[in-house]
Amino acid sequence: MKKGILRLSIMMVLAIMLVGCDKEDNDPNIDDCLITDTMLVLEPVCSFDPRQATTVQFPVIAKLDGLVPGHDEFTFSWSKDPDFNGSAISISYEQLPLVLILTEISTGCEAEATLGSDYWE
Question: How far apart are CA 11 and CA 17, in angstroms?
């Protein structure tokens, strides 16, 4: 009788553990993602209109909530040059659209921003 109660108790504990464990609850990145696409913008540094000289390169900088994200906290993947890991890059009007995927190193969270020709319309 004692063995039956012991086995039943062990089975109940295991069942509770299995039902209580959910993979989403154990993923630390779900609640840690504090960056969103709406927080990330790409801004041309120069004030000239590149539609007048479509082959001239101009610098574009990434801003996260109005600030330039740091290399110690984020990695940068630009559509023009995925291996370039700077917070700013040069591009011409002909090469648009420009896409940046910003990844937070500590959490793996990503935000994406695009600079298209419609910026100057």
Answer: 10
CA dihedral sign of residues 85, 36, 66, 28 = negative
- Nearest-angstrom CA–CA distance, 29 and 31: 6
Give me 35's structure tokens. 């960056």
Report residues of the chain scoring pLDDT below 70: 1-31
Spatial distance between the Cα atoms of 102 and 92, rounded to a whole number of angstroms: 21
- Write the CB contacts of 99 (distance below 8 Å, at least 6 apart in sequence): 78, 79, 112, 113, 114
Distance, in Å, from the CA atom of 41 to the CA atom of 63, rounded to the nearest integer, reads 5
64 by DSSP, 3-state: which? Answer: strand
Integer Cα distance of 97 and 79 in angstroms? 9
Q: What is the pTM of this model?
A: 0.73
Q: Report pLDDT for 6.
A: 58
User: What stretches of the chain show up as alpha helix (H) in DSSP?
Assistant: 2-20, 23-26, 29-32
